[in-house]
Amino acid sequence: MKNLDVVAAVLLVVGGLNWGLVGAANFDLVATIFGAMSPLSRIVYILVGLAAIYQALQWKAIQRRWLSTARAHA
User: Fold this and answer.
1) Domain ranges (residues) in the chain
2) How confident is the model at residue 69 (pLDDT cuts 50, 70, 90)?
3) Which of 7, 9, 37, 44 has the greatest count of CB atoms below 10 A from its CB?
C-alpha cells in the first residue's frame, strides 16, 4: 500500500503543478505534452482525480502507515 501512497502523492503533485500553471499562466502542461483532451491527457486527468479521491478517503490510514514505519526505523 505504501507504493500506492507514493504514486498517489506524485500524481497529486503533477496535478497541483498543472493547475498552478493554468491559474498563473493559462498554460496546461498536460495538454501541451499529450494534446488537448487527447486520450492520454484524459487518462492523466482521471488518474490525478482518482489519486485525490484515494488520498482524501485514506488520509488517516496513510498517516498511520507512514508514522508506524518512521517509528520502526527510529
Assistant:
1) 2-69
2) confident
3) 44
